[in-house]
Amino acid sequence: MSLTELISGVEDHEKRLTVFNTGEETVEAVREQFRDRNLSVVGDRSESDRPGSFVVLSSQRDGDEDEFVTATSVDEVLTPPDQPNSRGDGEHHPILDHLDETMFTSYDTRQMVSASREIEDRAWRLGSGSLHAGFQQLSILSDQMDVYTRLASREDLDVHAYACPDAEVPEHDTDLTIHVERSEEIAESWFVAYDGDGVDVNKCALLAEEREDRAFYGFWTYDPDTVDWLIEYLEGAYGLIEQ
Q1: Are residues 187 and 213 in the same domain?
Q2: CA within 20 to 30 Å of 37's CA: 171, 199, 211, 240, which one?
Q3: CA distances from 115 to 55, 125, 129 (A)
């Protein structure tokens, strides 16, 4: 299985968010909240319109019946992710917790960098394990060398960068390992994967492909098996030129 096939497999595993007992305006607000996800949002009503307005997240694969994943209030969903939720605490929204491996659509470069930084920051904070990042081209990696030489300066953090040769290999004086590969999937893929130093709850990854000019389609995941597969695939599929 290739990187593209992994993305396609996640894409085929569609999730549905059903908004119960509310008006079309609220349904549209929820749809807008998740506009950059490969997630269908529909409205419905429960019997007797009880227990008030709420949303249900369900999952479907290969045409099977929807399988319940989780439910929460409409207010919980519409609370901005960077704001306290309706309980007044800082916990993640239940719906967001279960959108692991949900596709995002047409992320631009700014959004991709922002998502990548979340994983890079976790690797920096923990300071151990291995981090693998795909930059498509060496010229793009050159623009990120300050970030990646800093990461590679952590003594117990093994950092790998993958890119196709459109420029000279960036010079550096750290333990950063640069994999120079003439590969179509490396040229088209943006990925960042951190193995959490073997601790499952710390594992995370982002994988996307450029389907349109600087528009990326892919997913992020905290599923340890998916992260392990991705890193094992990269380690097995590509030789390296260590600089």
Answers
A1: yes
A2: 199
A3: 26, 16, 20
